[in-house]
Amino acid sequence: MTLPGAISSGGQRVLLKYHRLLSGTGASPPNSLSALRELLQGGAEVIEFDVHAIEGGDYLLIHDDTLERETTGTGAVRHITRAAAKTIRLRGSEESIALLSDLSQVLAGHRRPLKVQIDLKDEIPFRKEEAGRFLRAIESLRANPQLNIVVGCLGDWNLRTLRRLDSTLSVGLDFALYLDAPAPEFPRLPLRVNVYGYLDDHPLGYMQVMPVRAYLEDRIESLCRLLPGAVEIYLRVELILRAIADGINPVEIIRRQLGSVLVDTWTLDADASGAAETLQAVLHAGVDQITTDTAVQLAALVEG
Question: Does the domain spanning 6-303 belong to CATH 3.20.20.190?
């Protein structure tokens, strides 16, 4: 099956990023080697997967920092060994959970341009040796000239540490731990909804001393400077929609500050309530890339 690489909007080609290696076909579990092979065979242009460090210098493809929800295993991911990982199955399948070293072998012979975003889930500040370990783990991927490797992490401090060791590493900045629309579905930083109605622990939001538009412009401009050299910016869909409702297009502010940096919005799935309207809103805002679990269905919304 040929998979969509992008959708068209106003003459612009907006990339589709296959979140957790999912296509929307339901053929494979997330963050799995079978899902990766489906995307490679289908011609996806941008893929993304999650990694957590485990014992022994390897990394596990998994979203959570514990095993229970996504696999047949139990306990903290960081305590798993390579040998133990081979005995763990992904929930709903007989497939073993994948290691980054396994995925690297699959991609080693890939001979078509492909952007690969590695979503590093470890947010505890890296020691220098831990950062070096991660860089060594992705060496073979970065050595393939057909692969454009971009590393993202909610912990921008870890990305800065990686860049200190290797300034050529491409990295992406996510605003989510600093500024977001309220997200009641999961507890995380920022801890409070401020006077402007945003998740933001910055002192500027403790008292309403300026219009919401001025507040948003100041916060977005300042966040653009968090990660020098970032090639991509990731904005949650809900933040874009909320900011637009308050009279500010965050994509425009980011472009004004950072020029041609790619702006990605996450995560927009075709089965979400109001997905068609949301899709049109983020396309109108000018995003360059959409992160989705359902690329096939999202592309069909545009064609329909």
Answer: yes
Q: What is the rounded CA–CA span in Å between residue 55 and residue 109? A: 27
Given a cut of 70, the residues of the chain with pLDDT beneath it are 185-187
Residue 197 sits at φ, ψ, to 5 deg, of 90, 20
pLDDT tens for residues 64-108? 999 999 999 999 999 999 999 999 999 999 999 999 999 999 998
Closest by CA to 24, choosing from 208, 296, 216, 227, is: 296
Q: Is the dihedral angle over the CA atoms 277, 280, 283, 284 positive or is it negative? A: negative
Q: Considering only CA atoms, which of 215, 183, 219, 179 is closest in space to residue 196?
A: 215
Residue ranges per structural domain of the chain? 6-303
Q: Phi, psi (5° rounding) for residue 278?
A: -65, -40
User: Can you give the pLDDT at residue 187?
Assistant: 67
- Overall size of the chain counted in residues: 304
